[in-house]
Design goal:
The complex is a heterodimer of chains A (118) and B (108).
Chain A lengths: L2 E5 L2 E3 L5 E8 L8 E6 L5 E7 L6 E3 L7 E6 L4 E6 L8 E9 L2 E6 L3 E5 L2
Parallel strand pairs in A: 2-11
Antiparallel strand pairs in A: 1-3, 3-8, 4-5, 4-9, 5-6, 7-8, 9-10, 9-11
Chain B lengths: L3 E4 L2 E4 L5 E7 L8 E6 L6 E5 L3 E2 L7 E6 L2 E6 L9 E6 L6 E2 L3 E5 L1
Parallel strand pairs in B: 2-11
Antiparallel strand pairs in B: 1-3, 3-8, 4-5, 4-9, 5-6, 7-8, 9-10, 9-11
The chains are: A mainly beta (118), B mainly beta (108).
Amino acid sequence: QVQLVESGGGLVKPGGSLRLSCAASGFAFSDYFMSWIRQAPGKGLEWVSYISSSGSTIYYTDSVKGRFTISRDNAKNSLYLQMNSLRAEDTAVYYCARGGAVTSFHFWGQGTLVTVSS
Amino acid sequence: EIVLTQSPGTLSLSPGDRATLSCRASQSVPSSYLAWYQQKPGQAPRLLIYGESSRVTGIPDRFSGRGSGTDFTLTISRLEPEDFAVYYCQQYGRSPLTFGGGTKVEIK
């Protein structure tokens, strides 16, 4: 069955960096767009970024452009999100999901919490 | 950016009631690339409906989606106790991808 397992969350100071990982299994990872979606405490869902199956197409929401970098390693069935210059407003549970441009999010990980605080 | 506005913010209903959730887009959603998700506390969202009206395998047929262009509706024909949750619409036809603010369906 499809599994997505995020890791790498934690407490970081404003201005700091963190790298999230998502390990995928149970499907042909290299065939699918993948996305990161976040949810601030008590708030709604916000799509953050997607990457195409080959990695050639990448898109970010405006609030993270220039600070976050999405990438993937199809040989390792893994998705990544490098987060730099973190701000308090980046505090959220970050979900990895299968899907992106013109595909809905059929599968989600359990999420990893990122807290940005001094 | 396509802005999705969900209404009402909260729906207070009883088990067995019919629930009608609205999602209005600020511009036409390309090819009806509109999805609905259910989220319960402490859990990841779950996809219910995609392509505006296609139900995911395993989702009960009391859930149905319809609409086109800028107006979409999720209907739960008869609420079961496990249906009380927050529901989000999402468009995936134009980047940036966007979600609505959610509708909470609570027990009256």
